[in-house]
Design a protein that fits this description.
Helix content is 25%, strand content 19%. By secondary structure, it is an alpha/beta fold. A hairpin with a 2-residue loop joins strand 11 and strand 12.
């Protein structure tokens, strides 16, 4: 069923939430997701299947066009300007609510990334996580110029989640679908960008299958989205809304009914959503995704846009 707007909090059984997973997929433009945009560039059969069996948002937008700005939005709900971002001002960032800081009291929190946390100073966003795993923490040579490939990181993330007995909030940021789109032993698409998307999607399929079969599934809330979109593969004008449209789906055993939400929403509403579902409160200024704001804001290198 489609649900255009209004309060949809009844679609999630928050009383059952014991674990929350936030999985952020590098450069996953909505253009590549067949469920949202059709088969022309569709490269995500696993994500398509997930979106068919969850609360799928078909008009979700990233906050900007860079990873550091997207990660800022996903952890603090804070937007970025065209030329600057709050990660460069740690003293001001410290005054903003952070999802790790908020959930630490009740949940074992962690962040996983196959790359270097020094990149664009993103480490300041995750300093409150109870545990961090980055490039040097993975004992693997299966990597590219950016770091350890997704199959390694996804497997470690899944293993650790299933092994931990405490309530958890775990966030993971993928890497392999970043330029130069160098992925290991995977050739399903001629276009290198689309091939890298398909590779990461295959890793996601393995992760979700393992979690779905586990006894944790029934009490877990999972949010899947992207850090940002991209002008690839069709290369419209930089400011075009299609470049900022991203996949967004809420799934897991706590979701009561598969639903398509057509309202405009922003990735900046994800921290408030997690806090609301996990704790019953949130200190963020944004709406939650369970009461869609029907608006989104994004910045690019030379301007800002409101939808």
């Amino acid at each position: 069923p489609c649900h255009p707007s209004g309060n949809i909090s009844y679609l999630i059984d928050s009383s059952k939430v014991e674990n929350v997973l936030l999985i952020v997929l590098e450069s996953f433009s909505a253009k590549t997701v067949g469920f949202i945009s059709g088969e022309k560039y569709g490269s995500t059969p696993n994500l398509d299947a997930i979106m068919q069996a969850g609360i799928a948002y078909t008009n979700a937008y990233a906050a900007s066009f860079r990873s550091d700005k997207g990660l800022l939005a996903l952890t603090t709900g804070v937007p970025s300007g065209a030329r600057q971002t709050l990660t460069n001002f740690p003293d001001k960032l410290a005054n903003q609510p952070n999802i790790f800081k908020i959930l630490n009291e009740r949940y074992a929190t962690s962040f996983y990334y196959g790359g270097n946390l020094e990149f664009a100073n993103i480490k300041v966003l995750f300093q409150d996580a109870g545990m961090q795993m980055a490039e040097s923490d993975f004992a693997s040579e299966n990597n590219n110029a950016w770091g350890v490939h997704d199959e390694v990181v996804f497997e470690q993330f899944t293993h650790d989640f299933l092994a931990e007995e405490k309530p958890q909030f775990k966030m993971m940021f993928s890497l392999s679908s970043h330029e130069p789109f160098d992925v290991p032993n995977f050739n399903r698409k001629e276009d290198p960008y689309l091939n890298s998307i398909a590779y990461t999607d295959s890793c996601l399929g393995v992760l979700m299958a393992k979690i779905r079969k586990s006894d944790k599934w029934a009490n877990t809330l999972i949010i899947l989205t992207a850090d940002h979109g991209t002008i690839r593969p069709d290369k419209p004008a930089i400011y075009d809304a299609s470049n900022f449209k991203i996949p967004l789906v809420i799934t897991g055993g706590v979701v009561k009914r598969d639903t398509i939400i057509s309202s405009v929403v922003s990735q900046m509403e994800i921290p408030a959503t997690i806090s609301q579902c996990a704790l019953g409160i949130h200190p963020f200024e944004q709406n939650t995704l369970l009461k869609p704001s029907q608006r989104a804001f994004y910045s690019f290198y030379n301007g800002i846009t409101y939808i």
